[in-house]
Design a protein that fits this description.
Helix-turn-helix domain-containing protein, 8 helices, mainly alpha, elongated, Cro/C1-type_HTH
């Protein structure tokens, strides 16, 4: 008998994978910090195994985020905007309202998370913020936006 994976467990798993990637933790390194096997981390990330409350707390401590981070963006889950989030994680709260209305919310959220997990996304962000001149950074951002909107 194959059990269906819960959408909540899948969402939490994606958030674990996202943070693990952003923090540059391998599955093995995270597993060691948690005192479990890397296979268990894989199961958490796929949502095939549910993450218990104490394990979720440990993950939040290791990855340096509030526990609520794992539920942000989940349909029906709301928190006070920005409460308890470190400045660098505040951007994970939500996208523009127009964007949310134009497409189904679950699909749009999944796409944003997948984009953040791409290695070149992190590389691009690091390169962008290594530019010291704020005016140059803004010009680069405007240039990228202009290219992205071309037909």
């Amino acid at each position: 008998m194959v059990e269906k994976v819960s959408p909540v467990d899948e969402h939490v798993g994606r958030r674990i994978r996202l943070l693990r990637g952003l923090r540059k933790y391998s599955q093995e390194k995270l597993a060691k910090a948690l005192g479990i096997t890397f296979q268990q981390v894989q199961k958490y990330e796929r949502g095939t195994n549910r993450v218990g409350a104490s394990r979720l707390y440990d993950l939040a401590q290791i990855l340096d985020v509030p526990v609520g981070f794992f539920f942000d963006g989940l349909e029906g889950f709301t928190t006070a905007h920005g409460v308890g989030l470190h400045e660098e994680q505040a951007g994970f709260q939500s996208g523009s309202e127009k964007e949310e209305k134009d497409t189904p919310s679950e699909v749009k959220k999944d796409c944003r998370i997948e984009l953040l997990m791409q290695p070149e996304t992190l590389e691009l962000a690091q390169a962008y913020y290594s530019i010291k001149d704020e005016k140059t950074r803004q010009q680069l951002l405007n240039f990228i936006k202009a290219i992205a909107t071309r037909p």
